[in-house]
Amino acid sequence: MTKGLNMRLARTRLTILAAGLLAITGCGESAIPDLNSDSPLTTGNGTPRNAILETNHEILDLRPAANPDRNAYFGDLHVHTGYSFDAYAFGTIATPYDAYRYAKGEALLHPAGYEIQMQQPLDFYAVTDHGMFMGVVQASADTSTDFSHYAVAKPLHNINAPDNYEVGSIPQRSKAFATFLPSLLTGIVAGEVDPKIAEAVTKSAWRDSIEAADQHYIPGRFTTFAAYEYTSSTDDRGNLHRNVVFRGTDRLPAVPFSRFHSQNPEGLWDWMDGLREQGIESLAIPHNSNGSNGQMFTLTDWAGNPMGEDYVTQRMRNEPIVEITQVKGTSDTHPALSKNDEWADFEIMPFRVATTLPSAPPGSYVRDAYLRGLALQEQSGLNPYKFGLVGASDTHVAASSDREETFFSKAGLLDGTAERRGSIPASFMTGIMLKWLDPNQMTEVDGHDYIASSSFETWSASGLAGVWAEENTREAIYDAFRRKETFATTGPRIKVRFFAGYDIQSDWLDQTDMARKAYDSSVAMGSDLSPRENQAPKFLVWAVRDPLAAPLQRIQIIKGFVKNGEHHEMVYDAACSDGLGVDPATNRCPDNGASVNLSDCSISGDVGAAELKNVWTDPDFDPAQEAFYYVRVLENPTCRWSTWDALRAGVEPRSDLAKTIQERAWSSPIWYRGKES
Fold it and tell me: 3-class SS at 539?
């Protein structure tokens, strides 16, 4: 009864509404249709009609159209949240969901208590929590979990309780970071900890990380990847870390492969190949080769044997790209390796990761790896180091910190303030306390005491991965990784294109279809270029500044080759700002006069370029010589993050740290294959 009454009342209201609308438009009473009738509406000639309005067939296409000439997209493929053992110990409770919201532009609370937010959203993001015992530290701290009942978990109980976010908790956190995993492994080996319980925690955390990626994926607008970090090292603490990124999320392994399954990265590749046979596609991205003590790019396999064809093809199949820059320094090259490169001494982190032990430069830097690859190819015809380049942050607070002015580093409470990361003098009380507790955690510079508990002062506000892809989707961006059409920046969103071929024309530079012509007639970054009889290749280089960062100063091309068994490299300036020309005697642009005012970090506003481009030919080209070429783009100088910290604190910057830097971008290489001798 009530239902029927409600229906009649609804019809009456609808009739009154229709009458009111028709009255407003001036229609007479006879034009009012009987909306209470179940009969179809009719036209004037009696033809049945079931609608008053014409159907609108317009379609809203909310996904941007794919661009065959490809767009530049920027992202971060190295992000840790509270599921990582070290991040949680550092005070990070942010979730993968928080991380993706941050990348989309939302603010996030830093463990040190202040709000952090990106200057502009990113295009893609991947949470890469450590695979080894993912989530187990968090479960140890939560006293409601089964795992928290183990003795190994008790020192972590409530470590991130609201009342424990203060300086006094840092020794406890540092100890937890250093001792938890060894203690847990000891407990498992001794039979005191059930590994199945630990694995169940990891399964749950990994599943939640995948769910977060899927929840925040918006094809065409924001891309996420299921990913994690494989965190291995040599016995002498040489860094061998990799991030494993999956193409899709339809089918994935239930548990990430970690160093506790194999310390040898070749074991990781075997696992990835096994997944690939099951239709699960992934790639691994090595990072922090600078801290590997020469072990990332060795001349032999893990066992010390010469690299055979199986090893080389397996490595390149699984590791097509490498991270060249991040918070823990830049891995392009080192002054000891590139003595004729004035820009080689850039954000050098000289230690093995998580130590203050020196890291040997040979075998630790990207350019040296490219040269080693050419030497191995000359000997055996095999090159294991033909990889592309990306940048990343390696943040451990779920949030990328890639701007010098607002740098908050990566280790949560441990380096979340200028004092703790050693860029300003320690306070009187902190200095007294640390000198009493552990004098090795202090260093004196310019008559002032600074905290030196790690290598924080050598870290960098970096970086980002760039790709050229048809659209912002998992498939398109992952395919760009695979073909190595990738580039890296130290934070600014500098766009870089790089092509090589024999039919490139200079007048293309001013044409709107430049990219289309280049794709049609040449090869892009990440590719091989075959020789052409009696012709030297031409290289098209193009870079556009980040409008929110400093202007560009120059484009350079780095060339590497092997001659008479020896490594050689050259740095050529290929495009200069401000109408300046390259000096053919030095292969350098004149200085454009850009400067930085260290009293307020303001920069020259009248020099530098918004765009640089050129068609360049190698003046020393040898058609029979195997070589690689990659682009390095330099901005005008700006203040380093440590100078910004000092400026805000009203103190002088440390004299032993660079006061200014030149932010930069790198393309992936193009390899010229040479002629048969």
Answer: strand
**Pairwise CA distance, residues 324 & 285, whole Å:** 10
Q: Is the dihedral of CA 177, 179, 183, 186 positive or negative?
A: positive
Residue 60: phi and psi, rounded to 5, are -85, 115
Q: Measure CA 666 to chain center.
A: 13
Phi–psi pair at 217, nearest 5 degrees: -75, 125
b/e per residue, 505-535, with b = 16+ CB within 10 A?
Answer: eeebeeeeebbebbbeebbbbbbebebeeee
Residue 646 near residue 424, CB atoms below 8 Å: yes
Q: Which of 525, 269, 543, 556 is nearest to 386 (CA)?
A: 525
CA 132 to chain centre: 21
Contacts of 505 (CB under 8 A, 6+ apart): 517, 615
**For residues 53 and 175, is the Cβ–Cβ distance under 8 A?**
no
Roughly what angle, to the nearest 10 degrees, separates helices 265-277 and 309-318?
A: 70
Which residues, 6+ apart, have CB-to-CB distance to 490 below 8 Å?
325, 330, 347, 391, 402, 460, 461, 462, 463, 464, 663, 664, 665
Residue found under tokens 């990738």: 486
Cβ 84 vs Cβ 139: under 8 Å:
no
Angle of helix 195-216 relative to helix 96-103, nearest 10 degrees, comes to 30
E strand segments, 128-169: none
Residue of 391, 465, 408, 407 whose CA lies nearest to 638: 407
List pLDDT tens digits, range 224-237. Answer: 999 999 999 999 99
Q: What is the C-alpha to C-alpha distance for residues 406 and 338, in angstroms, rounded to an integer?
A: 31
Cα dihedral 301, 302, 303, 308 in deg (nearest 10):
-20
Identify residue 320 by its one-letter amino acid code: P
Distance CA 209, CA 612 (A): 41
Count how many Cα atoms sit within 13 Å of the Cα of residue 315 in the half-sphere of its side chain: 24
DSSP β-bridge partners for residue 539 = 500, 616
Q: Which helix (H) or strand (E) holds 323?
A: strand 321-326
| Global confidence as pTM | 0.92
φ, ψ (nearest 5 deg) of residue 198? -65, -40
Residue 217 φ/ψ region, left for φ over 0, alpha for ψ in the -120 to 50 degree band, beta for the rest: beta
Question: Considering only CA atoms, which of 223, 241, 220, 382 is closest in space to residue 299?
Answer: 382
Give the pair of three-digit tokens for residue 483.
């073909």
Which residue pairs from 212-215 have beta carbons closer than 8 angstroms and sit at least 24 positions apart in sequence?
212/95, 212/96, 212/97, 212/99, 212/100, 212/127, 213/96, 213/100, 213/126, 213/127, 213/249, 214/249, 215/97, 215/100
Low-confidence winner among 29-43, 176-190, 289-303 (lowest mean pLDDT):
29-43
Q: What is the pLDDT of residues 583-635, one digit of tens each?
A: 999 999 999 999 999 999 999 989 999 999 999 999 999 999 999 999 999 99
Phi, psi (rounded to 5 degrees) for 401? -125, 85
User: What are φ and ψ of residue 541, in 5° steps?
Assistant: -120, 140
Task: Put residue 546 in one of left, alpha, beta given phi > 0 → left and psi -120 to 50 → alpha.
Answer: beta
SS3 170: helix
User: pLDDT, tens digit, for every residue of 17-76?
Assistant: 444 444 444 444 444 555 455 555 555 565 555 668 889 999 988 889 999 999 999 999
> pLDDT: is 54 or 519 the higher one?
519
Q: Is 479 exposed, middle or buried (0-12, 13-18, 19+ CB in 10 A)?
A: middle
